[in-house]
């Protein structure tokens, strides 16, 4: 298991409030990791830093075999390098069809002229069909995605994440708004993705985390409080104090 | 290609309607048909076609990409200036050559050049050619300028604006500032484009003095129709398929598009520059029909009108924008040209030349509030499928769904 992403000594503050405080984090490929933590622990900011949305005040974020710094790259470059993100609130392009959403996410060249002269390929269409099958939206491909239910939008966004074929999947609250059966499906999907790639799941739901059966990182006040198996961290007194004990 | 027309049925209809319209006007025009239409009306129709082309370009920028540019008429005007320079130079050259032919000693090329300068720049108290007239003697070079000058301005301005991630109303203000600055600059005599006099006599094509204006008017009408048809095809192709998907994505949520790996700024720049170039070409066809161009043509108000046409016609569908430009600009010339009869209310007479702008303003407000889809929305009544869904906002989840509050994603 080689290191895919390494953050060290990362701090960021908003108006004096330290959202991330000297955070260090490492994930290999393949690996599945769950991140838990109380509200305001900096989970979303953590993802914002990796995807380039937020620039840290200090620290290093290194990526891949060549250990390139993600801090010098724009959001789109980071995404092209292989970081995919699923947002907490499903953000799909509501005015476009499910197929269009997936086609936009599909791994292809991203330059304006590549896109302008893009020809639909059989391989691309098959990939879209396969993903639609996986996320259970095969019969919804022609629908405007704004009409989908909340759970279906979650699935569509997961599908868009898969279509990008990223090396690191950042998944924010995937199970929100899903039925128990769908949650199970999501767990399967994430665990399967984690056999090849690095997957980071931010989740509130302990039951869901337990089912993922992976290493857990507990964030609190912008830094790592504990790391290890779920049983290990839930036995940790600090964790019980700040999070579970409430 | 066939699948393109199959997927975009409106394109074929628009081109068919345009072809029928051209046929009708040709049959009724003074030079080629019965002459029911006057030469000046044929010119008005030709100019309207050019305005429709800019409106289509504006719709791609605003309705599809979500950039409310209030400066696209600057590119239109620049296109007009670029072709106007050649028209003025070449025609003056012929006149000078004619008048100097009688001279006892044949004039040298320098003398002719100086005499042209005297003739063109006499009105602004100068006789020297500014550097920017360097290509004016050559039609091919000046035609290249029609494309290059608006294109470069759009490229440089867009690059500066988009890379600093100026969006929304701030970008609109910036584009207004651009067109205002350009207009103020051109008002100066030192700018080298004859200041507030502008370029005139553009309706007279050099070497074609024998051809009556009636014939020239129908030529330009045909050329404008061809440009509109080709421009419409081009933009319909651009906004269909994956490019259209990406730019509509940028309009609705540009951050999300970024996280998919698309360099949003490049896309905005591409659209901004492409539409700038097409606007320049439309201007180059418009001003020879108008006969005169001056800096007032690129004042901020011109670009605001453009946005009003597109809004009234219906954003987000190309034929809506074209229709809006045609209806509003033709109505405008009818009302302001004394075509509309005054309304006597007994205590007050509504003189439409004064009240047209008020009427236009009211209809703009009415369309925005009551019929956001604009004139183009009428066509939805005939077809089941909506070309662009009217709603881009959040459709859910409703209050009953499980929602987390922490760290809501900003839009």
How would you portray this structure in words?
Chain A has 246 residues and is an alpha/beta fold. Chain A has helices at 43-51, 75-81, 98-105, 112-116, 122-134, 150-164, 180-193, 206-212, 230-235, 237-244; strands spanning 2-14, 17-29, 31-36, 58-63, 68-69, 83-86, 168-172, 198-202, 215-220, 223-228. Chain A has a six-stranded mixed β-sheet with strand order 6-7-8-3-9-10, sandwiched between helices. Chain A has a four-stranded antiparallel β-sheet with strand order 2-1-4-5, with helices on one face. In chain A, helix 3 runs parallel beside helix 6 and helix 5 (122-134) crosses helix 6. The two termini of chain A are 36 Å apart. With 411 residues, chain B is mostly helical. Chain B has a domain at 15-299. Chain B is built from 13 helices and four strands. Chain B has a two-stranded antiparallel sheet. In chain B, strands 3-4 form a two-stranded antiparallel sheet. Chain B starts with a helix and ends in a 41-residue tail after the last helix. The model of chain B is unreliable at 393-407 (pLDDT under 50). The chains are: A alpha/beta (246), B mainly alpha (411). Chain A binds chain B through residues 39-40, 43-45, 51, 53, 74-77, 79-80, 84-85, 87-89, 91, 93-96, 100, 103-105, 110-113, 115-116, 118, 120, 144, 146-147, 149-150, 153, 160, 164, 173, 176-177, 204, and chain B through 238, 241-243, 245-246, 248-249, 252-253, 255-264, 266-267, 270, 388-389, 391-397, 401-404, 406-409.
